[in-house]
Amino acid sequence: MTNPAAVLRAPSRRRNLRRPWIGWLFIAPFGVIFLVFLVAPLVYAFYLSLFSKGLATGTTFSGAGNYVKAFTDPEFLSGIWFVIRFAVILIPIQMAVSLAAALVLDALTTRLSRFARLAIFVPYAIPAVVGTLMWGFLYSPTFGPLTDLFKVVNQSAPEILSSGNIFGGLLNIVVWQWAGYYMIIIYAALRGIDPSIYEAARIDGAGPRQIAFRIKVPMISSAMALILVFALIGTLQFFTEPQVLRPISNGSITSSFTPNIYAFDLAFRFSQFNYASTISFSLGIVVFIAVYIFLFASRKRRGGLS
Amino acid sequence: MTTITRIPTAKKRPNITAHVFLVALIIYFLLPLWWLFVASTKDPQGLFTGTGGALWFDKNFNLLANIQELITYKGGIYFRWLGNSALYSLLGGVGATILAVLAGYGFAKFPFRGRDFSFAVLLGSVMVPLTALVIPTFMLMSQLHLTNTIWAVILPSLLSPFGVYLMRVYAADAVPDELLDAARVDGSGELRTFLTVALPLMRPAVVTVLLLSVVGTWNNYFLPLAVLSDQNLYPVTVGLGGWQALAASNNGGGTSLYTLIVVGSLISIIPLVIAFLSLQKYWQGGLSLGALK
What we know:
The complex is a heterodimer.
Chain A: H1 4-9, H2 11-18, H3 21-49, E1 51-54, E2 58-61, H4 65-70, H5 74-107, H6 111-121, H7 128-139, H8 146-152, H9 166-191, H10 196-203, H11 208-219, H12 221-236, H13 240-245, H14 259-268, H15 273-301
Antiparallel strand pairs in A: 1-2
Helix pairs in contact in A: 3-15, 5-6, 5-9, 5-12, 6-9, 12-15, 14-15
Chain B: H1 2-39, H2 44-49, H3 63-72, H4 77-109, H5 115-126, H6 134-143, H7 151-157, H8 161-174, H9 177-185, H10 190-201, H11 203-219, H12 222-227, H13 236-249, H14 255-278, H15 280-286
């Protein structure tokens, strides 16, 4: 332990063990923000969720009452059900688009492919509010091209913002907004693969398609897992796009369309802050558990690799 | 012999389909932007019943007049929103990056007690949906009378657990322990070692985290929508969203508001699009950092 040679070889280790607070000093500024803006809101939300406020009764302790109410509240449950359905349909589409784009861009080095890479990525730099506004205009029978397009074939344009089509309309906006970001992550992972592997595969008689699906895709599985987690977290807390489309949706986006919209309306429209806290806290827990299960399952499948 | 002839043909055919695929992608991803540009050159009437259809210019080219109107409308409140967005995203983004660099370096290079546990907590927090914190944060801040101030937007934007994670992953590989030790043996203090030795090596990750957090704050909608009620403090996202709701709710008077929304949207996306195009070198490699581990 007190071998002088070892001390000479590892001076920093010795110094740092003697002054263990230096590491903490570097982490402290972030730690303060973490405690104040992540831990404290969670604790406060949990605290508020244990109380109910009635007009006549005032604020009373209700224990798990709000949670019983939330998880039997058809509005909250329909919101949860919507975001789960949305995630299940959105994520495979988005992965397919971004993976296909990245594979093609990785295989080509033409001027067109460089331009395409930027064009696909640009929506990421555009605020979700503006992206949604643009698509909202494009969907609109008045402002968009759909009415003219369908006139050509003597049909009336579909109402994309109607309650039957809004699901697809939102799906399109989210794919448009995020596919480029995911594409860049996959693309960068593909660029990181040693090209001599392709050479070896080609000598073994593998075609470009086999190289893509048997070598490239398996080698970027950790990038794909990262994207999946991002997409899952992002979709379950869906808020901005439906909230922005709401005024022009003629009621097809209701006040409990997604859990976050529901919580927002409960808090700022109906001043039910205790119940809104319950919804927020429940959403946080549901997302945390969903992502945790996913990570656990995918880690197991990849044989203990982290 | 046959393999030699097969390779070029196999290579050539997918090239055409690949390029067609790329052209389709380009059209899809740029279509809304094209529409936005065309629409911002139209006067209110052209926007509704233009001669060239939705995807082509009207006979009147009205872009400058639209911008003029945006400048004067309600005392130029739009440009105030734009300035607010810049302020929030710069302060929030730079602040979040500084905190993330320090913490990532601390996690990567100092073996202190409780490190593994705190990092596990941090990783867990990446999985917490940040929007679920918006309403509790609002209520916490209203207790402290901080709502409806710029700090209500900037301070929560400093929280970037994912940025810390990226920094730690990057610093662990990019900053060799031997180099830090050498600096320490030469008598350099910990802060100086960090600033002169470690920080330059972490630059690619710093640029990436900075871009991610600036974009995150610039694009944020839920948080400012919840914590701000004074129009003069709105960022551009909340302002435009408000105009949209206003235009949709009063059809008659909303006519000219639509041109303002369109031209305002166009101007609001220019700064970040330029930032991304000019900083390509940095973010293209950097964004994949999180996938390394």
